[in-house]
Each structure stands twice: as structure tokens, then as C-alpha cells.
Amino acid sequence: MGWWIGGISLALLLGLALVVWNTASGHGGPRLVDWIDRASAGSREVAQLANVQLGDDPAVTAAVYAQPLGKGDAPRPVIVFTHGGGWNWGDPDDYGFIARSLASEGYVVVLTGYRLFPQARFPAMLEDLATAVAWTDANIARFGGDPGRIVLMGHSAGAYNSLMLGLDRQWVADEGLDADRLAGVVSLAGPADFYPFDKESSINSFGQAPDPQATQPVNFARADAPPLLLVHGGADTVVRIRNSEALARAVAGLGGRVDTAFYPEMGHNDVLLKLASPWWRDNRVRTRVLAFLADVAPTD
């Protein structure tokens, strides 16, 4: 018998969440997972400290989450997380479960939003994440964060955005920042080598790019990139694991640091769900992510 929340079996809710997320567009999946996470594990004393619009477009946002900061506490490392959704859907407000999962471990978490298709195409998503990183660098100290220890993290399309900012220096440079200051990048099922474009989502968002090769993270592999953690499921049929395998080979071949965590039985959303309660009872992904974070951006 599963746990019960308000008279509804948790086991049934978990199954419903997977069905909602994995069928059709899956738009309701993250919101349902967020509700289940809060209902089963509570707030963990994590609070939203700010939610700001960055510039004129309402889609470009940054929401800051953290546990209470005590007097005299040292600044905390920062995770800037970007949601997935094929660059055409997604709402950072639905990813509070990521903020609660990571902020409860001593991080300040920033959930970012960016312009989506059809309102925007490449490179808008990269420009918007660069704007959020610049805002974080300039403002996160007010919320107890350390701008010298910023890790980018994302799932699916958001992992792509994060990888591109970590590998291709131009995007944060346009905001007056140095990409080499980033402490690391965590990619959860990220597209890294997907040209030629053969899916509607990639055709829509990247088909008009004047140089398609310049849209691919694998082409920006470099030895001096921030440390990378590539997490991927072998059963992922949305973003094939070969994307992470190709990027890992490219970075490692140049002498850069790239860690991998591949799980043969996991699908596209599994690597993200394992960070949420109660899916984290299978703690392999969460433990691996936290170990990487502890290495590149340790909490005090």
C-alpha cells in the first residue's frame, strides 16, 4: 500500500505524474511532480526569496530559493537551473521541487525562465540564460549566495542552454562575464550533438541558424571548459544518450574534465525525477549530482 496524501494513494499519484509527463506534450507533468514533492517532503525550510523579471520580456525571469541564512553564515554556492521543454514550453515556477531538493543541501538555487518558440529562436535562449547568469553574478550576494561559485544546471533543452554557456564563451562575454569563472555545469539528458535537425522542436528553434554547426555544444568542446557532469539514461528516446557520449569523448579527448553518470534503464525524465521526493528513494542520480557539486562548489 502506498503512502496517502489527502486520501489519494501516493503510488497512484506517481503513476499519474509519469503518464502526464510522458504522454502528449507533458506540459502538466512538472507541476504535478512539484505538488507531489511538496506534499510528500514538505518545504524543507526552503523559501522563495525573490522572483524578478529581467528586462522587457516577461518570460525572462530569475527566482531565488534558499534555506534561512543565519547571522555570520558564510556565502553559499549557487546553482542556476534551467528547465526543459523542447525550447517551446515550460515554466520555471513548476520546478520548485528542484529548488527544494538542492537548497536543502546548502545551496542557493536560481530557477530561470527564457523566451520560447514561436516567440523566439536560437540564440534567444542562450542570450536569456546569459542575462540570468549576469543578474545572479551581480545580485546573489544579497541572498546569501557566492557569485564566485556558480554552477549551471539544466534538464533537456535547459541542459543544452547550460552546456552552451559553459562551453561557448561568447554568451556570457556579451554580458561582461568570463565563462571560465563558472564552477561547473550539470547536464541532465542534454542535447549536445543533434545536427542535422530531425525533430520538430530542433527544426523550429534552430533551423534558421545561419551556421547550424555553431548551435552544437560538441563543437565547442575545450580542455579548459568548466568541469562537466553529464547525466543520461540509456532508455532515453527523446534525447539519445549518444549526445552525452559524443560530448564526453570530445572533452576528454582534449584533456578537459568531464564526469558521466549513465543509467541504462532510465528514460528522458527519470534523471530529473530522481531529484524529487519520493522518487529520490532511488538515490543514484541525486547522490551523484550532489557529489559533483560538493567537489566543484562545496558548501561550507
UniProtKB/TrEMBL annotation:
Keyword hit for Hydrolase: yes
Pfam family membership, one: BD-FAE
Domain BD-FAE-like: 72-249
Keyword vocabulary terms for this entry: Hydrolase
Protein name, per record: Carboxylesterase
